[in-house]
Amino acid sequence: MPRSPRDDTKWGGPAETSTAGTPASEAVRNSASFAFDPETVLLLGQVYESAWRELEAARSVRPSKRARTKASATLTRHLMAAAHVGERDPEKLKLLALQAMGLKVLSCAGAADAAMPSSDHAATGSG
């Protein structure tokens, strides 16, 4: 059963952190109906792995299994939403998803080294 983006308040804050009112934020709400070609599915998998490593590295406290599961689902929805509205550049997909998760990322080119927890949405590690 799809959950509201606002249900995912652990490990990155609400799903609409920086995208409220955008086509991507609307797409997050409708993510259950997404369909992608095989190349896009492969791309999304690769970008997910890279973004997940950044999320893990940006956290000083290891979140609970429940919080990690919620964060994984939220990251997946944000990646799918960005792809749904046409984004296919791997760095931009990752940047959009990480920003929506509440990370401050300085640039696409430096995303791997620049991700840091947002002070507004830092994880508590509980849950």
Structural Rg: 13 Å
The H-and-E topology, N to C, reads as: HHHHEHE
What structural class results from the helix and strand content? mainly alpha
DSSP strand count: 2
The overall pLDDT, averaged over residues, is: 72
Strand content: under 5%
Count of helical segments? 5
- Uncertain stretches of 5 or more adjacent residues: 1-19, 109-127
> What is the CA–CA distance across the termini?
20 Å
Binned, the helix content reads 40-55%
Strand count, sense and barrel status of the largest sheet are: 2 strands, antiparallel
Strand order, largest beta sheet:
1-2
Q: What's the assembly state of these chains?
A: single chain
How would you describe the shape? globular
Write up what this structure looks like.
Helix 1 packs across helix 3 and helix 3 crosses helix 4 (90-100). The two termini are 20 Å apart. The radius of gyration is 13 Å and the shape is globular. The longest helix is centred in the middle third of the chain and has 21 residues, at 38-58. It has helices spanning 23-29, 38-58, 65-84, 90-100, 111-114, and strands at residues 103-104, 116-117. The model is unreliable at 1-19 and 109-127 (pLDDT under 50). A two-stranded antiparallel sheet has the order 1-2. It is mainly α. It has a domain at 5-10 and 37-117.
